[in-house]
Amino acid sequence: MLEFLLYPVLAGLLIAVAAGPLGSFIVWRRMSYFGDTLAHASLLGLALGLLFQIDLNIALISSCLLIAIALVILQRRSSVSTDTLLGILAHSSLSLGMVTVSFLDDIRVDLMSYLFGDLLSITRDDLIIIAIGTAIIIGLIYKLWRPLLTITVSEDMARVDGYNVDGLRLVLMLMVGLVIAIAMKFVGALIITSLMIIPAATARRFSDSPEKMTILAVLIGCMSVLGGVSLSWFEDTPAGPSVVVVAAALFLFSQIRKQPR
Predict the structure, then answer these.
(1) Could you write out the DSSP letters of every residue in 60-87?
(2) How far apart, in whole angstroms, are the C-alpha atoms of residue 11 and residue 130?
(3) Residue 186 has pLDDT above 90, yes or no
(4) If you write DSSP's letter for every residue of 6-56 in order, what string do you get?
(5) ∠ CA(220), CA(218), CA(65), 5° rounding?
(6) Could you tell me which of 23, 7, 58 has the C-alpha nearest to residue 192?
(7) CA triplet 124, 223, 185: central angle to 5 degrees?
(8) Rounded to two decimals, what is the model's pTM?
(9) What pLDDT does 259 receive?
(10) What is its main location (predicted)?
C-alpha cells in the first residue's frame, strides 16, 4: 500500500513543484507548443531506449535535452519560423519513434502507460530521479530567476544588462525538457504540457507579481495532483488524465469566479 499510493503522490507533488515555475515562464513566453514538441520527442527517446536496451530514464532525458538543443541551433541557422521548426521537430520525432517501435518485435511495451501515464509504474528509483530532477530545476530557477525574468520581459533589455540571452533561453528549454522527461511516467507524454500550463494560467488570474504567480502555480499544481490521485483511487480512473481534469476544473472555476476589484 505504501508503494502503491505514497510514491505516486510524492512524485506528483515534486513534479508540480518543478512544473509551477516553468509553467509560468511557458505562459509568459507563449512556449506551449515547445512543450508539446518535447513531449513528442520523449516517445522517440523511449523507443530508442528499448531498441538499444538503455535505461529508459536516461533515454527519455537525453532525447528531450537533445531536441531542445537542436531547436536552439536551428533557430540560429534556419530562416524558417520557430512555429514551423517546432511542428517539424514534433511530428518528425513522433513518427520516427513509432517507426522505431515497429522494429521491437521481441519487446512488449505498453505505450498507453507512456502516452497517458500509469499510477502503478512509479517506483522508488523513479521517485529518486524525479526528486533529483526537481532539485536541479528549482536550484537553477532560484539562481537565474532575475536573468530569466529579464529576458522574458525584453530580450533587448537583457542584452543591454549584459545577460547571455541565447544561453539563458537554452537553459530554460533544457529545464522544460528535463521536467517533461521525469514526469512522463506519471502524467504521460500527451498531456504533460497541460500540467505545466493550466496551473500557471489559473494562477495568473489571481496574481499581481511574477513571484506570486509562480507560488500559486505550484500550489494549484499540488492541489491538482492530490485531487487527481484521489479521483483515480476512488473511481479507478487513469491517474495522469485525472490530474489534468482537476487542473482544468480549477481553471474553469477561476474564470467563472468574479475577479475582485
Answers:
(1) HHHHHHHHHHHHHHHHHH--S-HHHHHH
(2) 7
(3) no
(4) IHHHHHHHHHHHHHHHHHHHHHHHT-HHHHHHHHHHHHHHHHHHHHTT--H
(5) 125
(6) 23
(7) 35
(8) 0.86
(9) 56
(10) membrane
Residue 3 pLDDT class (50, 70, 90 cuts): low
How do the domains of the chain map onto residue ranges?
2-190
Residue 117 dihedral angles phi and psi, to the nearest 5°: 85, 160
End-to-end CA distance of the chain: 47
CA 94 from chain center: how many Å? 17
Report the alpha-carbon distance of residue 193 to residue 203 in Å, rounded. 16
Going by C-alpha positions, the residue among 11, 38, 22 that lies closest to residue 141 is 22
Which amino acid belongs to residue 49?
Answer: G
At 119 the pLDDT is 67
Of the listed ranges 132-136, 200-204, 218-222, 231-235, the one predicted with least confidence: 231-235
Please tell me the predicted confidence (pLDDT) of residue 46.
Answer: 81
Q: Which CATH number fits domain 2-190: 3.30.70.1890, 3.50.50.60, 1.10.3470.10, 3.30.70.120?
A: 1.10.3470.10
